[in-house]
Protein: Major facilitator superfamily (MFS) profile domain-containing protein
Organism: Gossypium raimondii
Amino acid sequence: MSFRALLSSSNFPKSPPETISTRAKPNPTRCLIRSPVNSPHGCRLSRLSATEGRRRSGKVYADVREIADSLRELVKFGDSLSDAVASEDDLDSAVPWWEQFPKRWVIVILCFSAFLLCNMDRVNMSIAILPMSAEFNWNPATVGLIQSSFFWGYLLTQIAGGIWADTVGGKTVLGFGVVWWSIATALTPVAAKLGLPFLLVVRAFMGIGEGVAMPAMNNILSKWVPVAERSRSLALVYSGMYLGSVTGLAFSPFLIHQFGWPSVFYSFGSLGTVWFALWLNKAYSSPIEDPELLPQEKKLIVTNCISKQPVKTIPWKLILSKPPVWALIVSHFCHNWGTFILLTWMPTYYHQVLKFNLTDSGLICVLPWLTMAFSANLGGWIADTLVSKGLSVTTVRKIMQSIGFLGPAFFLTQLSHVNSPAMAVLCMACSQGTDAFSQSGLYSNHQDIAPRYSGVLLGLSNTAGVLAGVFGTAATGYILQHGKKSLLDLSSG
């Protein structure tokens, strides 16, 4: 701040404007300071006696000296204030950009990376099951049983994970889940060599860890992300699942080819420890618990988030009596029936039906998942934009979910009529791409319906979704084995 600005903002008393008049009473002091001998006020030094002049001039000198001292103090104050402002600006510029990044999006990115690991560890079995079944002589029904055993544990912890997250906090629950499923992933090769029952148990244990991830994530984001950013944040987090499938499908064939199928489980499982170290250091269950959160961002989050108070009891009767809750549960079941079948059996379809070499055709195999990652974030941006334009949240959710259901239904039915592998992959990509709009539909609707109980509500609906995964995955293996026999019997007859 400049010295001139400090003077203009000071509290010095200002003298009233002078009115020049020949009838005005002469002011000797003003004449001594400002007026010439022949001033308009008619003041003349000769009219003052020597004694009176010395007395008055002494008084004026004292006044001037007092003003000068005040001005010197003001200059010192101005210099110190300028130094303080400069030092504050220097402090702001000295803070690294990554520490000025919004903390709520740090939480979103950490949740995104957790779901990236989640599907990496889940989809690796879809690739490794091919050399494993050749080594251990597993038939398609056994392969379907192994693939579905993951969902046994996944089913157990959906509601429990939601209750735990809503009452204890999402940070603890999600951290537990990642560590648990990472250990189970690393133990998979050991269990497979011990025998099929051990492998089934370890896969179920892996499902226990991944089962708490979605309810815990939903609980955290309901506290950290404002309503206006909900669709985008959830779309980004769930796109981590799709990119996890991409990463797993891309790297698993290479690792199997170079180091054998056990290397997939060892390498992917070890990544969980790196994530857990970052999670412990950076994450908090709510913005109120974060001591490093900037006041401006804390005010923004607390003001615009609905879920604030911790949950002590779950009103089960009230929740289960609401029709929107049951509509959400049915939607989740229908959505996961197709999604989990594609997740677990798509590599087998590529290998056995389309005759793709998974190592040489990595980009083609991951194209549907890349499409999902892109369209999920596109759908989230569209949904938040529609809400900001004034369209009701309910209408936006219905639009997004309609695309998420009708799009896959159309493209998967076309898949049975195409003969070209390229067209088959294109239909799969379009099916998965439109399916990803569900992230801005049913997956965002839990926080709309019951923000305080979003973890429990997601646990309920995802339980139905897991049942779809269990039955759909196992039924696909059964159909593949017995459907072939039926076709052979018909052809021989």
